[in-house]
Amino acid sequence: MISFLFLKRMIKRSYSTTIYFLIASIIFLIIDIYEIVTIKIILPFILISLLMSPSIFGIMFSSLTVSLFIDDRQNGLLEFLIAEGVKPRKIYYEYVLAFLLISIPITVIVSVILGLLVRNLYYMILILVNSIRISWMIIPPSLYLSYLQKTAGSSRAPLGTYIGITILLSYIYLGSIINSAIGIQNLMLYAGITILLIAILLTIVIGYTIKSEKLIP
Amino acid sequence: MLGLYEVSAGYGKTEVLHDVSFEIKENGIYVLLGRNGAGKTTTLRVIAGILPPFKGKIKKEGNIGYLSHSFALPQEMSVKESLEFFSRIIGGDPNNVIGRFHLEDILDKRISSLSQGQKKKLSLAKVFLKDYDIYLLDEPTENLDPILASEIRKLIVSLSKSKIIIYTSHNLYEAREIGNYVIVIDKGRISLFKPINEIRLREYTIGIRASEDLSKILKGEYRGDYFVLNLNNPAEVNSIIQELMRRNINIYEIKEMRNPLEDLLR
Hints:
The complex is a heterodimer.
Chain A: H1 2-12, H2 15-39, H3 44-49, H4 52-74, H5 77-83, H6 88-118, H7 121-148, H8 159-177, H9 181-209
Helix pairs in contact in A: 1-6, 2-4, 2-6, 4-6, 4-7, 4-8, 6-7, 6-9, 7-8, 7-9
Chain B: E1 2-11, E2 14-24, E3 28-33, H1 40-48, E4 55-60, E5 64-67, H2 79-90, H3 95-98, H4 116-127, E6 134-138, H5 146-159, E7 164-168, H6 172-178, E8 181-186, E9 189-195, E10 204-210, E11 221-223, E12 226-231, H7 236-246, E13 251-256, H8 260-265
Parallel strand pairs in B: 3-7, 3-8, 5-6, 6-7
Antiparallel strand pairs in B: 1-2, 1-4, 8-9, 10-12, 10-13, 11-12
């Protein structure tokens, strides 16, 4: 329940940023749809570029989650929650969950729209898995680095966002290096599932390392 | 009941509290005094369960309400929304604190636009959403206007009849006015724990405002309107009054010029 409240706060404290992120995602979605409609025959090479629109919202929205976490720690809100008996691990999971509550549905909606247009269930699954794992992979390291920082607002805070962008760009470049269609499909399948599992595992493991003394101002 | 037994605690590898032990069995107001960095906030954090101790044992009976030195408020919310936010997380009814803390006029205001005093009011209100057995209040009247500060003191005094209240303040007059016990912490160690009324002064300083120049009669000096003199014993005040009355001098006011708790921090 706390995660819903956190999510509401993330959006409310910066409506303009959230709207901008949504508009950016819609623009990328329109470009992807245009690509699918004009190309007609979808090759696995194109699949990589289709990851852009479902992933971009998660990459951008992670900054709102991290900044809320930093502010809440600085103003003593997290200290108050711990004093009220909320476990530090739970606090961390609530922020992750708040992020996933918005990024996953948007990623799923965009992936399904693209998958339906591609008319290939397997491709739809590949787009879905890969865009979810790009979004998910961003948040645990971003929050963890902010948690480790004694000085809020350091340039290391959005490291998770940089990781997300790097994964996305790596895909795009790998698409031009791997010239077999099967190779790309396999890459997207295995790398997608592996990184998604790593992201889930990382979320759980990091939760167990969170200490209350680092959540106080 | 609350007890700390040889508790050492701190941040990272830095130990701030060293073998702190005390036991509180009866309800009342326990004023925690100490200089900046002495370990007052760390003591409250350890009791509240925010900081796990490096060693030692903590015994607590009942739930704990904690007012930290920081406001701990979601800045983007209005006052009303924030009370609803806290009540959804910790429980309690916002309507019970809105009137009590005079929040009616600022309910729709965004927290980020509130004054420091208004933020403090709201911060206090959130702690009183629920009923606790032990209250840890880190400078509860700081930033408040005198009227509200006085109301908060009354609230704390009335609560103290059935609760344990540990209270930090830099306002020694306030601490003396409402406290039942004083706990002095110095460099992370408890240096004194006793009833406030048992605190004896090394020196007793009073100021007298009178109708005539007192410098020719008494040994002391003028500070503004007050003639200030040091006494060895408060009982000497009586003989001074008698002497001044015998000389037909009108006494307008006699007051303590120094708070006895100041001595504890020296």
